[in-house]
Amino acid sequence: MRITEIIKSNKPSLSFEVFPPKTSDKFDTVQEAVEKIAVLKPSFMSVTYGAGGGTSEYTLSIAKNIQEKHGVTALAHLTCVNSTKEEVRARLEMLKSSGIENILALRGDITPENQNREKWDYHYANELVEEIKGLYDFCIGGACYPECHPESEHQKEDILNLKRKIDAGCEFLTTQMFFDNNVLYNYLYKIREAGITVPIIAGIMPVTNAKQIKRSCELSNCTLPQRFKAILDRYGDNPEAMKQAGIAYATEQIIDLYANGINAVHVYSMNKPDVAEKIQANISEIIK
């Protein structure tokens, strides 16, 4: 099923992101965690993809298994940084032949290994969206940054770039994580004013490890409200307490989003089935 069909109703949807292993020796462990999340029967599951296709083989295998074995719609990430057009087209053909209908089209992170932009066939995500749209009938999604893309000088520029992605054929957007729902509400007002009317899926990160959140915030360009900083200060050195507090905070965010008409929520599960299960249980009556 196409993601746009899943999220178009007024019924709240809850989905989870998982990521493939970086090396083959971790595949079985990751696959087991992913299957435990799939058993929860979320609205859909997205599977990430390393820059330059480093984990592409595992992404496809996991996405295909989610759909065929568990009947859960898969959203396969596809990045284009440091990839040739031939590589991207071959990847698209593999996704199509595997029965994948949905793609999250991303530029991908710039790393020390792929900084030579002169060698890139694609420089921006809108170019990847155009490529996909011109070849196949995938349901194409993209990413957006409620607190501005780290490489944009200001939010107006970022929203203009986002509009180019929509005009290229992007059908829905998933936000980077944020910890203050008012940030999202203000952002939605701005992008709607700019003529961006596609569905928005709110990305929520349950923080269960205080040490990892700083790096995650740097990559996604998000800030931590004082209320959340207090939680990190109080419980950051107690792993179990931090997990419980992080799940509670994420649950509160999700309930507020649903109450304010944001019906599609995507949880960055970090391959943790227990976290996904507890969040789903916390809102079980809400998403009935």
Describe this structure in words.
With 288 residues, this protein is α/β, with parallel strands linked by helices. The chain is 47% helix and 14% strand. It has 11 helices and 8 strands. Strands 1-2-3-4-5-6-7-8 form an 8-stranded parallel β-barrel, surrounded by 5 helices. β1, α2 and β2 (45-47) form a beta-alpha-beta unit.
The computed structural class is alpha/beta
Helicity, in percent?
A: 40-55%
What integer value in Å does the Rg equal?
A: 18 Å
Cross-sheet strand order for the largest sheet: 1-2-3-4-5-6-7-8
Key features?
single chain; 288 residues; 8-stranded parallel barrel
Brief summary:
The chain is of the alpha/beta class and 288 residues long. Helices cover 47% and strands 14% of the residues.
List the helices and strands and how they pair.
Blueprint: H1 3-7, E1 13-18, H2 27-38, E2 45-47, H3 56-70, E3 74-79, H4 85-97, E4 102-106, H5 125-135, E5 139-144, H6 155-168, E6 172-175, H7 181-193, E7 200-204, H8 210-220, H9 226-235, H10 239-259, E8 264-268, H11 273-282
Parallel strand pairs: 1-2, 1-8, 2-3, 3-4, 4-5, 5-6, 6-7, 7-8
Helix pairs in contact: 2-3, 2-11, 5-6, 9-10, 10-11
